[in-house]
Amino acid sequence: GFAIRIELRxxxxxxxxxxxxxxxxxxxxxSLNGNSLQGNLFPELAELSSxxxxxxxxxxxxxxxxxxxxxxxxxxxxxxxxxGFSGDLPSGLSVLTNLVDLWIAGNAFVGELPTxxxxxxxxxxxxxxxxxxxxxxxxxxxxxxxxxxxAYENSFxxxxxxxxxxxxxxxxxxLENNQLTGTVDSKIGSLLDLEDLRISNNHFSGPLPHSISxxxxxxxxxxxxxxxx
Length: 229
Description:
This protein has one helix at residues 66-69, and strands at residues 5-7, 14-15, 29-31, 36-39, 53-55, 60-63, 77-79, 84-88, 101-103, 108-111, 125-127, 132-136, 148-150, 155-158, 172-174, 179-180, 196-198, 205-206, 220-222, 227-228. It is an all-beta fold. The radius of gyration is 19 Å and the shape is elongated. The protein starts with a strand and ends with a strand.
């Protein structure tokens, strides 16, 4: 097939995705966000090996999508937020080395963020908020090139890994409504592009570092309901 892009955003589409899409093997973009599509992703989707943009946000899809999605090795933009997807995030996500956007917020994903996310060295925007994720934030996130990291409304524990502060292009860091502990390290002062820092409703403690005063671009800074001294 010769279709390169299919964009059917907010078109009142319902029903399921049809396996016949597999014939569009030169498809670069499939954007179907804001519809009422439902059911599981069909296995034949994995045959769209040229796909660079897949946007299925704000639909009614269910099931564990990862066996199919991790076959799409050309993906740069993967947006599946606000569906009913579930299951663990597999370590095999590391094969998607072209990813710049990984948006999986507002689903029912469980388990930990895989350490293999650190293999995604050009990943800029990681949106995992409003899931049922647990465990610690992986140190390996420091290997990414994060600009936006939104992980609020989960059940993450442990401390903010020092390596996260090496993402010096970080503009938004939202970790509110988790079970995070420890202190905020003075290295946070190296995030000079930070505009949005929200860490409310956790169990952080100790004094806030003076280096926060270096963050002159901060527009949102929310830290209530912690144990700061």
